[in-house]
Amino acid sequence: MLGGYFCVNAIGKIRPGDDQSFKLFLKSAEPPPRCVVYIDSSGGDVDAAIGIGRLIRSSWFATDVGQYQIDFQSPNSIQLMHRKKLPGQCLSAATLVFLGGRLRYFDDRSKFGVHQFDFPQAQGEEIPRNYLAHSQTLSAKMFEYVVDMGISPQFLMLSVATPSDQMRFVSREELEGIGAVTGGQTDVKWSIEGKNGLSYVKGERDSLYGYHKVMLGFNNEVGFVFWAVIETQGRARELLGFSLVEVVLNGESKRLDISSRAERKEEGIYTNILARISEDEAKQIAFSDSFGVQIRFASDASMFLGIAAMDTKEGQEKLRTFFTNHKK
Predict the structure, then answer these.
(1) Among residues 102, 137, 175, 216, which one has the fewest Cβ atoms lying within 10 Å of its Cβ?
(2) Do 101 and 142 fall into the same domain?
(3) Which of 293, 192, 223 lies closest to 252, judged by CA?
(4) What's the CATH number where 218 sits?
(5) Any residues with CB less than 8 A from the CB of 60 and at least 6 apart, and which?
(6) Percentage of the chain surpassing pLDDT 70?
(7) Which one of 177, 200, 225 terminates a domain?
(8) Quick one: how far is CA 247 from the chain centroid?
(9) Collapsing DSSP states into helix, strand and coil, what is residue 199?
(10) How many domains does the chain have?
(11) What is the spatial distance between Cα 140 and Cα 17, in angstroms, rounded to a whole number?
């Protein structure tokens, strides 16, 4: 913890077994979810990098490139420790660690470099065929990892195009274009799922404000429903108690008051909001440009809790087809 702010500095070369060392570190230090792992590394062992990346993702950490240090040049006190971020480098296998972040930050002061991964060379009397099989297995493992992290395979194409004895430095714009850098919010992912007799179209997004889901659902017995899952983040009392609950459409230009119909329940780290809606309300949601949910103390309150409207661009076909298939 630096200056009242939890973070992890991952500095230096990645060596075989460092993923197990990182696992032990997490167990002993217990950094909280949502803290940032700052990476300043020239790369190293691919297997260990993938292991560290998966631990970062399962721990709900974000990643950034650089170091986060106490600023001893600024006046500090017991109550307040000033901090500063230093630029750094994320090269070769270290980029796989970076991809583990649920949110991934990068600024132009730092360096992000890729090239063909240089697998361990066959030594002594090692059979070349076994070496080739190992290299192919590791390549498949990297591809699976990148896909599991939700990153475009184009990321690996950037690496393949650059010989292992060279380094290609990738700009923030390129990294954003392939989803490797998210900033404070990921794109919305849309899918069609079902659970306990309820089928639904789900939009999910991770951001500084939590991991959230909004859903348009249908059940044969009750008809259309609106369902939201909000990462509570210590605000259960407000999320469960504030009187006004509204579905917001097209940014905030349209509001559907579901206060009297909304069932609210806290489950683990999430607060669920479920409400029956009319066919007309379902149509408005399905054909909207974006939708979310706001929970406020009163209609004149400027601040809200809940989920800012999620862009439906990538989910419009699913939403509209879902509505058309279930309307009367």
Answers:
(1) 137
(2) yes
(3) 293
(4) 2.60.40
(5) 33, 34, 102, 211
(6) 91
(7) 177
(8) 24
(9) strand
(10) 2
(11) 20
Q: Is the predicted pLDDT of residue 125 greater than 70, yes or no?
A: no
Q: State mean pLDDT over 27-44.
A: 95
pLDDT at 204: 98
Q: Is the pLDDT of residue 2 over 90?
A: no
> In the numeric block, which tokens belong to residue 220?
């044969």
CATH code, domain carrying 40: 3.90.226.10
- For residue 182, is it within any domain? no
Instruction: Based on the fold, state whether residues 150 and 230 are members of the same structural domain.
Output: no
Is residue 217 within 8 Å of residue 194, measured between CB atoms?
no
What tokens appear for 189 in the block? Answer: 């992912």
Say whether both 166 and 194 belong to one domain: no
CA 252 centroid distance within chain: 24
User: Taking Cα atoms as reference points, which of 150, 169, 151, 149 lies closest to residue 159?
Assistant: 169
For the chain, where are the alpha helices, taking DSSP H only? 18-29, 46-58, 94-98, 128-148, 154-160, 172-177, 236-241, 279-286, 316-326
Listed in sequence order, the residues at least 6 apart from 305 whose beta carbon sits closer than 8 Å to its beta carbon are 230, 235, 238, 239, 242, 294, 295, 296
Q: What share of the chain is helix, strand, coil (3-state, %, to 5)?
A: 30, 35, 40
Structure tokens at 76: 């500090």
Residues 219 and 96 in one domain: no
Per-residue b/e over 27-42, b at no fewer than 16 CB within 10 Å? eeeebeebbbbbbbbb
> Are 129 and 251 in a shared domain?
no
Domain of residue 275 covers: 189-326
* Residue linked to tokens 């390129």: 174
What distances in angstroms separate CA 103 from CA 42, 119, 185, 188, 307, one per listed residue? 21, 28, 7, 13, 17
| Per-residue pLDDT tens digits for 274-312 | 999 999 999 999 999 999 999 999 999 888 999 999 999
